[in-house]
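Consider the tokenized backbone below.
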């Protein structure tokens, strides 16, 4: 496999972003986002912009909305964070991380 320069345009990436809005495969969506980021970084360098321009670009925002939708937009960040810390070997979650909210 040989390296080929990214010749995609921002318009190409915008269309691809629209195309993945019906997607459900997180791996495919992330791969597409990664390609879009490469194109956006090329454009940012060309026009003299920086990280903020790329991070806040509407294409990036729409991809992130889609990824949030795929994993459930109502997820509990604190619980997910505690579980990932445990998976990473940082010990058991604290008591506060494991208490279920009273929903009766």
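A designed sequence for it:
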């Amino acid at each position: 496999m040989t390296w080929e320069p990214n010749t995609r345009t921002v318009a190409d990436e915008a269309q691809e972003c629209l195309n993945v809005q019906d997607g459900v495969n997180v791996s495919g969506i992330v791969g597409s986002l990664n390609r879009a980021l490469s194109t956006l970084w090329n454009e940012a360098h060309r026009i003299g912009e920086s990280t903020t321009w790329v991070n806040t670009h509407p294409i990036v925002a729409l991809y992130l909305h889609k990824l949030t939708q795929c994993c459930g937009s109502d997820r509990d960040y604190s619980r997910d964070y505690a579980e990932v810390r445990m998976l990473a070997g940082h010990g058991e979650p604290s008591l506060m991380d494991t208490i279920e909210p009273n929903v009766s």
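The chain has a mean pLDDT of 89.
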